[in-house]
Design brief:
The complex is a heterodimer of chains A (277) and B (358). Chain A contains 13 helices and no strands. Chain A is an all-alpha fold and 277 residues long. The chains are: A mainly alpha (277), B alpha+beta (358).
Chain lengths: 277, 358
């Protein structure tokens, strides 16, 4: 338990979460179960999950979240492995390079990606100069995916890199010493020991990806509706009740997705997955 | 019986970032012996072990297992196993799976694995700990799991990298005995790295004293202690009084201006030599009977003996004796001829640099 004398130190933060986190959540909760006449109702929730546009938006959101997470993971994991093998002096500068985009204004990042992807943007110019057919990427599902991967990649890389780089080099040596090839060592030692980083990376990419609306709006040209956009639209149109219902459902998804790969289960799946007969 | 070396290192050199770690090292290790690589930190002992294990590749020179050159053989194909300094147990596996690791990757059958793990855990006294995670074990228990894990692979040679360094004194003594007994009963060759000279002397069949990437002396613990070949070995192994002396002629050496009879021959006449006299070999006699006389400057009770500093002939002698002389007392010092160890002066200036300072 916290030392009683020091508990008042948490006061400012308690005020903060009460005002900016708990109160708004209660307001959402209240709106979600209320109709415009001020009576209790489930209709906001049922509307949220039965409306065909909403269901489509949910599906698309989950697909995007899943793909963005998977691509980030596939890019980040091998990179993290390589980074740990670098000499210390090189490491920090290389990691700095990967984090650098985070320092740039978000709007600017999105505008820049658009310029690259546009019909007469950089990619298509390159394709034309090579005599290849042009691609229509801007304002598509693909453009949003690229934007998400670009934006969330560091959040996948850093936790994985942190866990992988903390694996004691002698554990790898011990595995090889005991007769495991490099590949077996990866399967039986490196991979299981890096799982906490992988799980936190997945959470840190998937959760913001499924609640995103800004990237979708900037790179989807308003044509692609993710659940975040539907929520945002409800509120800008003044439909607080429906919007709150949707937001609540989305929140449940977020909570659920960050709970699924609990620590114990990850360990169990590691054991079940790679331990040989 | 002519014995063949099980491991031979030939002309091994290694450098890190331009710093010479091992310099043209030659070493043969024979089947079934307990060899200790002993030296101060940075002497190259751990690097030597890692070269044998395959974790380091020498810049030049060859490593042979039997007659086979194994320079390019990766660690996982070498018939040696290592006990790492900080045990390097797999934190995500329990005790059983740690010990079974090597056999599982070699796809041994389940019954055989279970039988071997059981035998190993019984041997190290950890039966019943199979399901425990390694983080719940004490340092000594983790050490035992590491031993069981390495021996479960049935290696021909076991490499031990300062395995007892992290244990407290009592446990360390216990483990020294256990390791020695295990080595004898299993008949496995042990190559043991330590900076602890006492550990090296008590456990080993042969001790390899290293410094500055060079082997200073190889010999049995008794040889190393009683007949150090140079100042470094004399100084590193046990306490000693080191002198720069002149070999007057065979059987007579001059130290601090006094002629002492000795038993060494073949050092020429009037040649400078290094001389070592162990503190327990200095005899305290009445002042008039001493070969050299001096004054006691300090006295410490050490349990079995007294440790005294005695100023004599301008040198502060370290003396261990069961006889107590109070500080300020005039005493005579005597040394039996066979207890005076004469050594050649190092040839190069550089070698001298590794000398007494370290």
């Amino acid at each position: 338990m916290t030392n009683k004398r020091n508990i008042w130190l948490t006061g400012p933060y308690l005020v903060w979460i009460a005002g900016f986190i708990i109160l708004p959540l209660l307001v959402i909760l209240f709106y979600a179960f209320t109709n415009p006449a001020g009576n209790f109702t489930f209709s906001n929730i049922t509307a949220a999950v039965t409306d065909i546009t909403n269901i489509k938006a949910f599906g698309l959101t989950m697909l995007l979240g899943f793909l963005a997470t998977a691509i980030c993971l596939l890019l980040a994991y091998p990179l993290a492995l390589c980074l740990t093998k670098l000499k210390i002096k090189q490491k920090s500068s290389v990691i700095f390079l990967f984090i650098l985009p985070m320092w740039m204004n978000f709007m600017l990042q999105m505008v820049a990606i658009n310029v690259i992807l546009e019909d007469n943007g950089i990619i298509n110019m390159l394709l034309s100069s090579l005599g290849l057919p042009n691609m229509h990427i801007a304002n598509t599902f693909g453009a949003i995916l690229i934007g998400m991967v670009y934006d969330y990649f560091p959040f996948m890389l850093l936790p994985i890199y942190n866990t992988v780089s903390r694996i004691d080099k002698d554990l790898i040596n011990a595995s090889k010493d005991l007769g495991a090839s490099s590949f077996m060592t990866f399967l039986k030692v490196t991979l299981p020991l890096s799982m906490p980083g992988v799980i936190s990376g997945i959470t840190m990419v998937f959760v913001p990806a499924i609640s995103d609306f800004a990237i979708a709006e900037m790179l989807g040209g308003g044509k692609i509706m993710l659940i975040g956009n539907v929520v945002e639209m409800s509120f800008t149109k003044g439909q607080y009740f429906q919007g709150s219902g949707l937001a609540l459902i989305l929140m449940l998804f977020v909570v659920a997705s960050s709970l699924i790969p609990g620590d114990d289960e990850a360990e169990a799946s590691v054991e079940g997955g790679v331990v040989l007969p | 019986m002519e014995k063949n070396p099980i491991i031979t290192l030939k002309d091994i050199s290694l450098s890190f970032d331009g710093e010479q770690v091992l310099d043209k090292l030659d070493l043969s290790i024979y089947d079934g012996e307990f060899v200790t690589l002993l030296g101060p930190s940075g002497c190259g002992k751990t690097s030597t072990l890692r070269i044998i294990g395959g974790f380091l590749t020498p810049d030049s020179g060859d490593v042979f297992f039997g007659d086979k050159r194994v320079n390019d053989l990766p660690p996982y194909k070498r018939p040696v196993n290592t006990i790492f300094q900080r045990y390097a147990l797999f934190p995500h596996l329990n005790v059983y799976d740690n010990v079974a690791f090597g056999m599982k990757v070699q796809k041994k059958n389940k019954a055989e694995i279970a039988e071997t793990v059981d035998r190993m855990l019984t041997m190290v006294g950890l039966k019943g700990f199979e399901k425990r995670t390694v983080s719940t074990l004490s340092g000594g228990q983790q050490q035992r799991v590491a031993i069981a894990r390495a021996l479960a692979n049935n290696p021909k040679v076991l490499l031990l990298d300062e395995p007892l360094a992290a244990l407290d004194l009592k446990l360390r003594k216990e483990m020294q005995n256990e390791l020695k007994n295990m080595q004898k009963s299993l008949g496995i060759t042990f190559i043991y790295v330590t900076h602890d000279q006492e550990e090296a002397l008590t456990m080993s069949d042969r001790v390899v004293v290293m410094d500055g990437g060079v082997i200073q002396q190889i010999g049995t613990p008794i040889d190393i202690y009683n007949e150090p070949q140079n100042v470094f070995v004399a100084d590193f192994i046990g306490d000693s009084n080191l002198f720069s002396g002149i070999m007057v002629r065979d059987l007579l050496v001059n130290i601090l201006g006094v002629d002492f009879p000795c038993v060494d021959t073949g050092f020429g006449e009037n040649n400078p030599v290094d001389v070592v006299i162990r503190p327990e070999d200095v005899l305290l006699v009445p002042a008039k009977d001493g070969q050299i006389t001096g004054t006691v400057t300090s006295l410490i009770f050490k349990g079995v003996h007294y440790e005294m500093n005695i100023m004599a002939g301008g040198y502060k002698w370290l003396v261990h004796s069961t006889k107590m002389e109070p500080v300020g007392a005039e005493v005579g010092l005597c040394v039996e001829p066979e207890n005076i160890q004469i050594m050649h002066k190092p040839h190069s200036v550089q070698q001298e640099g590794h000398g007494i300072d370290e």
